[in-house]
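Following the same procedure, sequence and fold were stored together, as reproduced here:

>
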Amino acid sequence: MNKDKRITKKEGLELLKNSGLLELGQRADKIRAKLHPEKTGTFIVDRNINYTNICINKCTFCAFWRDKEDKDSYILSEDELFKKIEETIKLGGTQILIQGGLHPDFNIEYYISLLKSIKSRFDINVHGFSPPEICYIADKSDLTINEALRILKGAGLDSIPGGGAEILSDRVREILSPRKIKSSSWLKVMEEAHRLGMRTTATMMFGSVEKPEDIIEHLDAIRTLQDRTGGFTAFIPWTFQPKNTELVKSEKLKVKSENSSLFAATAVEYLRVLALSRIYLDNIRNIQASWVTQGLKIAEVALRFGANDFGSTMIEENVVASAGVSYRVSKEDIIRAIKNAGFTPAQRDTYYNIIKRF
């Protein structure tokens, strides 16, 4: 990586707004080929486990959250949790992604017990608790972020997903999720985790109320932190899914977000942002395609627009599905799609070590 040759925010904005789609894709593909000359398309076998859908944040873009009093609210029992993990391991899974809502009654003791119960029974990587959860756990238990992370790591937390980033612009966050943590808190959690030797991913949800400038600010914040810590393993851009969300029902929000789109990004817009992410994030090795929001065919195309990773088999996924998007693929589907794109499929672990090639 030569920082002198990296693109600036101004250049990134120009590319995003005015470059041709194929030109952008070819540039991203060349960078991907340089970083991954072996032409391998990776994926992980894992399961998304949501331990509760009860959440005090009530984000307007989310269709998953429920109040405690709602009939379809839930807290996963230990037996249900263990059954899900056992099924995952039987299917060759090496990781569980465990996240949930911010439950008003849970303090750090709940999470310590949850982690220890998993680790005492299973040999599996726990990729869990996004920055909003970490901040909530710390606040609820009167701990600093560093203290909370140390305790959770000691109890069995291995790595942290990049959820809750949405767009790292407080102007946008005030519209989408006014109760959620600010951009600086999300970045602080990730920096503290990296300093403790934990690896994390970074995400970006776009296609809601942001402007192109906000996307560049987000990418720049991720790149700047990665310069300091090197702790991000991958970047995953994905598109807002509007169905069943409060965001598309609110006239107030439509006024607030004037000149911005309240509709899900098109496949072309997705590929543009994906390609720009590969070009801009010169210090993050892996860019992940999002079949869960785009479907298998566009994810396959994404491998020629800068992505090198196909993400997870997602034995289970609830949050995006609650917004009415229910793409389902098998491990075999992913292997076939990677081959169709001209790559060698390979199963990886959380840290991008290759387990098996196909």
Remarks:
- Residues 9-346 form a domain with the TIM Barrel fold (CATH 3.20.20.70).
